[in-house]
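Lecture notes, unit on protein representations.

Consider one protein chain, 222 amino acids long.
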Amino acid sequence: MGNLYLVRHGQASFGADDYDVLSGLGERQAKRLGEYFKYKGIVFDAALTGTLKRQVSTFAGICAGMQANPPSSSWPALNEYDSEAVIHAIHPYKLEKPTTPEMYRSHFRLLKNGLAQWMAGVVSPVGMPSYIDFVAGINTALDHVRENCHGNVLLVSSGGPISTAVGQVMGASPDATIELNLRIRNSSITEFAFNPKRHMLVSYNNLPHLDAPEHADWISYA
């Protein structure tokens, strides 16, 4: 028996040359989350992280805030899908960097459409696994936790894998899984209870570490 805390990485660098780097806010979000875990007395017996820079840096920030380093292992299957490849699969033209609200909305409309077609097996984004294989990779991490872990386990990943994990546990449709994905917030906590047979959803997309008024402007999505 145990509790699995699935954490989305802190704010990355949307629109920059290298998205896969935490912004200054993303670094603060990660450290603040670690401070929250320490305050609550939550000690992790194990941790799993993807291998993307924003995921690894988020885990490091959490550890700094907790002033603890739980035993950890890297899981490439927890890496995010390539959003640019997803969009390019349905819109094979170069997109300008979004600088206005309408450009941001257009970007996410294309992403939503591309995700739906990838999940249905209609398109095969370059350099990405099929959606079936993407889901299977995430399930390997969840199965590992059920079969080998106990107590509190930390999993640091991204919106796609976390929403997919929730979709698998809840039996959600592809459309519902996409909606979960596009609304997940940076450094948010999703909690599963688990036993050797299954995972059970306890909470989704929570930000208890940012509840105080002084952190109201720390909430971000991209």
